[in-house]
Specification:
Blueprint (H helix, E strand, L loop, with lengths): L6 H12 L3 H14 L7 H28 L11 E5 L6 H9 L16 E7 L2 E7 L10 H9 L2 E7 L5 H14 L2 E5 L10 E10 L6 H11 L6 E3 L8 H11 L2 E7 L6 E9 L4 H8 L1 H6 L2 E5 L7 E3 L10 E5 L1
Parallel strand pairs: 1-3, 1-4, 4-6, 5-6, 6-7, 8-12
Antiparallel strand pairs: 2-3, 8-9, 10-11, 10-12
């Protein structure tokens, strides 16, 4: 029996030949199946269309699952260190991010305004520190990649709202969610056994200090915290406490600035190296250039030594602000 295919079917078939993506092909096949004449002469064609549609749907679904499984954001690290802004919805994280970095952030009066990470640079004296504003951490819903990126930071700020009904509950709930994802805060220099968790130095930032009763709430919060945690009270909106917070962020990164000097030339005091506190001369040489570390004979240091330009060995422990001349 002849198929007697309709012009609508032939047009859908033409579009199928021109289709460039699987979703386009699927739409054409489904259109062909819907307009094909339904009689014995097209039974085999209908069966073939159904098989093709089923196979294509399965392919598209597999591709979708693969994209979801492999989906992730990446933060390209810059500056002297990377600090993540973490907290529940509507605590003012994005406003704080904008106040510290100068980067315009999406700020709204509703929860979950921030849906993806936003990096920006915070100037601190003569260095730049990278800040990342993360989507809210909430028991309602938080993507796994958010916790993965928080772990990749060098330090973090846990932001809470002094105008909330219960800031202490906000703080404890957020810490519990982080713990469930094997993230362990390090407060100041408290010793801790991280075990299988990722440990990062952090600060609690109590935001909205400008609002009525905020200072009383802060005092009550500090009294109830056991053990005490390092808290910096600020108002991102009123720009209160920003300088103190910048200094505390620098301290939380556990870094120091070391300046370099080429023998026979003037020192470069504009672009320090950021190295971990307690780093030795040989570790600094590795940061400057691997060849320097391999061939280092000694260094001359201005700053923490007994006298300027003192010759020191490879294991000499550097201090904040030292000026170093490497000799190979």
């Amino acid at each position: 029996m002849p198929a007697n295919l309709t012009p609508e079917y032939k047009e859908a078939e033409r579009q199928l030949r021109a289709a460039k993506t699987d979703p386009e092909r699927l739409a054409c096949l489904e259109q062909m199946l819907s307009v094909i004449p339904k009689h014995k002469g097209t039974d085999k064609m209908q069966g073939d269309l159904k098989r093709r549609i089923s196979k294509l749907k399965e392919k598209i679904e597999q591709q979708s699952r693969s994209r979801k499984k492999g989906f992730s954001y990446r933060i390209h690290k810059e500056g002297a260190g990377t600090v993540g802004l973490v907290g529940p919805p509507s605590v003012g994280k994005s406003q704080l991010f904008q106040a510290l970095s100068g980067v315009e952030a999406k700020i709204g009066e509703y929860p979950f305004t921030t849906l993806e990470p936003h990096p920006g640079m915070m100037p601190f004296e003569n260095i730049q520190i990278q800040l990342v504003d993360f989507p809210p951490v909430s028991s309602e819903h938080t993507e796994t990649w958010v916790f993965d990126l928080i772990k990749s930071c060098d330090a973090f700020l846990l932001v809470i709202d002094l105008d909330a009904d219960d800031p202490l509950e906000q703080l404890q709930a957020t810490l519990e969610l982080l713990a469930q994802r094997h993230f362990l805060p390090l407060w100041d220099d408290q010793p801790v056994d991280a075990g299988h968790s990722v440990a990062r130095r952090g600060l609690v930032v109590a935001n909205k200090l400008d609002l009525p009763d905020a200072r009383e709430t802060l005092a009550l919060l500090e009294e109830m915290l056991e053990p005490p945690l390092p808290i910096v009270a600020v108002s991102a909106l009123a720009q209160t406490g920003m300088d103190a917070l910048r200094h505390r962020i620098y301290d939380a990164l556990n870094i120091m600035r070391i300046y370099s000097k080429t023998p026979g030339k003037k020192a470069d005091l504009e672009a320090p190296y950021a190295v971990r506190r307690g780093a030795t001369l040989i570790e600094f040489a590795q940061i400057v250039h691997q060849d320097f570390a391999e061939n280092l004979k000694f260094g001359k240091v201005w700053g923490s030594t007994k006298f300027d330009g003192m010759i020191v060995k490879r294991d000499y422990v550097l201090q904040e602000g030292d000026l170093v001349e490497l000799h190979v």
